[in-house]
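## Example record

The block below lists the input lines for one assembly entry, exactly as stored, with component labels intact.
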Amino acid sequence: MPRLWNETIETHRDAVRQAVLDAAANLVAGHGIAGVTMSAIAQGAGIGRATLYKYFPDVESILLAWHERQVQAHLSELLKIREQTVGAREQLGAVLHAYAFMSHAGHVDAEVARLHHSRHAGQAQQHLLDFLAELIHEGSAAGVFRADVAADELAAFCFHALGAAAGLTSPEAVLRLVTVTLNALEQPA
Amino acid sequence: MPRLWNETIETHRDAVRQAVLDAAANLVAGHGIAGVTMSAIAQGAGIGRATLYKYFPDVESILLAWHERQVQAHLSELLKIREQTVGAREQLGAVLHAYAFMSHAGHVDAEVARLHHSRHAGQAQQHLLDFLAELIHEGSAAGVFRADVAADELAAFCFHALGAAAGLTSPEAVLRLVTVTLNALEQPA
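Predicted structure tokens for the full assembly:
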């Protein structure tokens, strides 16, 4: 009987959650991470400070949740791109290309991403790394990529190298970055 | 006449400055960047909050100064390493090797480094990038490294790629990361 009511509550809670994440992202974009407070986030989301604490214990957890949402959205995009491409090299090329432009467009993403210790990557980021490792592993098995370094290490290398895209000023430079990164995956002479 | 007195004041001011940077670094190491306050830093440095504001306007500027100090120390090390090595490939290899292990050891460094927008890299970080670009440029001129991508773009690529070292768990993995990064600088087939 209370099914509809529960759904309504769930929808409301999700809307509040999304508003909180949006408010936190806006504050970080405007002022940087240091100094972002729970009060400012509550105000930005249009809720009371006490209500905010029912959703998240601290600023860190909000930024982590926001980052998870971003990476999850990126990952969905990248999975689609992979499905539209054939061949190990072409697939990884298309995926790294798309990811480099995501990194190029999202400075704040990168900022928050690196805020979290590399050793404690969020779940979505770990999925992204696993996805890249899978593509690289397929390519290594097919003799397209080097096999002397483990696929997960090469995935982490690609992920970090493409972070340089955030500081590049032209799309051409982003393309060159993707090429250089892919060259590193080739069997060394 | 007031020379000695001025020197004493300068020495004192520098000691306070260093204590503030150390206190900020300890707080970030313990709790992460979000939530670090001027009050906590002042307490950690053993000075009053009002005194702290005579040195730095906000947390962001303290973290930036701390990061500058870290990168400057790293850069001095890397310059020494370069002088002890002969040959463009060997020099860059030795420098990237040393930098990768600095990145591997200093998680917090990396965290703060990335806090600052890539577009607004500190002065010391820009010097580090210029130094890497100079080494790569010499290597390209000598036909050792690829010349189809500008040296400053390749320097940014190396800098970011080696950031992956912070998340690696073994020294062997760090060495493989350096090798893969260097492979990317070779003339593509």
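The mean pLDDT of chain A is 87. Chain A has two domains: 1-57, 58-189.
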